[in-house]
Amino acid sequence: MSRSIRLAVIPGDGIGQEVVAQGLKVLTAVLPQDVKLETKEYDLGAKRWHATGDTLPDEELASLKNHDAILLGAIGDPSVPSGVLERGLLLKLRFAFDHFVNLRPSKLFPNTGTPLAGRPEIDFVVVREGTEGPYTGNGGSLRTGTPAEVATEVSVNTAYGVERVVRDAYERANARPRKKLTLVHKNNVLVYAGHMWKKIFDKVGAEYPEVTTDYLHVDAATIFFVTQPERFDVIVTDNLFGDILTDLAAAVTGGIGLAASGNINPTGEFPSMFEPVHGSAPDIAGTGKADPTATILSVALLLRHLGYETEAARIEAEVAADLEARDGTARSTDEIGDALAARVAG
Ligand code: ATP
Ligand code: MG
């Protein structure tokens, strides 16, 4: 294992700046002394776009590639037209670095005011496909501006793309104690894509005899996320279904302030990118109200991805202990970051 980490940091907009600062604080505190951490910060996001019109210039993309991982805060501001930063920056990065696994763990943490408090332990991971489905930009508008306007947004599903994410999900399920994998799709209506997903899911499954499998339509899955979340271990799903399901998962398991994610290129050919699920939250930016825990848990995912399992597990355990100890007194972004940095170091 390499004992140095070259980390690219994109703080981004709004609370992104505030939470990333706490994530770095905890990362520095948890790393053993002999691990050299080099960080390089990238000024990308709404402010940069307003100043220069740039979203993600090619030179910066090339420079980002030269890192072991990327830590992202949040990108977006209501002053930027919808889609500009999403397509020009976030999706551009995801496609360029082939982040085909979008990983979003959900755990029921203590003292979080979730509607599921007091339920048996909830601990599942959603593996969302990251480069295909309706996100490829394949579509268009015809007869624009006329009463007969037509808009298409084509969902692209390749056997190659589906198989590689399904295989990744089987690997993850096989490595967990329960070894259960659920495919979520909508193959009673989306018959072309849905049947291909199911066929590939079954084919790859033959190579993982120890993994128990299940299939749910996405609408049924939303019900079970709320009524029987303990039935899930690993879930694999399409890009758009995964987007919606993981926000729901965040809401029912402790709130958006705790939801972490990784945009992963499992081959290691490109750096993977870790970020909180939440956005830039302009409504609370600058108030110190942002909870940095989601970013700190994203740092744990980053460390695990780079092979620092002990440090990743320590962050997760200390987050749980910190939440356990919360007594309802409001703490600022900085105070939570300081408390967690002290815990992981001590
Ligand atoms: P995006 O389109 O960028 O995902 P969004 O519209 O989903 O943005 P968020 O920025 O995620 O919105 O914010 C949604 C709500 O959650 C806001 O009210 C915001 O204040 C709150 N929120 C988001 N992140 C946090 C956080 N880390 N701590 C506390 N509250 C948060
Ligand atoms: Mg959002």
From TrEMBL:
The keyword Phosphoprotein does not apply. Keywords: Amino-acid biosynthesis, Branched-chain amino acid biosynthesis, Cytoplasm, Leucine biosynthesis, Magnesium, Manganese, Metal-binding, NAD, Oxidoreductase. Pfam families: Iso_dh. Binds 1 Mg(2+) or Mn(2+) ion per subunit. InterPro entries: ICDH/IPMDH (IPR050501), IsoCit/isopropylmalate_DH_CS (IPR019818), IsoPropMal-DH-like_dom (IPR024084), LeuB_actb (IPR023698). One of its GO terms (cellular component) is cytoplasm. GO terms for biological process: L-leucine biosynthetic process. Its EC number is 1.1.1.85. It comes from the Bacteria. GO terms for molecular function: 3-isopropylmalate dehydrogenase activity; magnesium ion binding; NAD binding. Homodimer. Catalyzes the oxidation of 3-carboxy-2-hydroxy-4-methylpentanoate (3-isopropylmalate) to 3-carboxy-4-methyl-2-oxopentanoate. The product decarboxylates to 4-methyl-2 oxopentanoate. This is 3-isopropylmalate dehydrogenase. It comes from Streptomyces piniterrae. The gene is leuB.
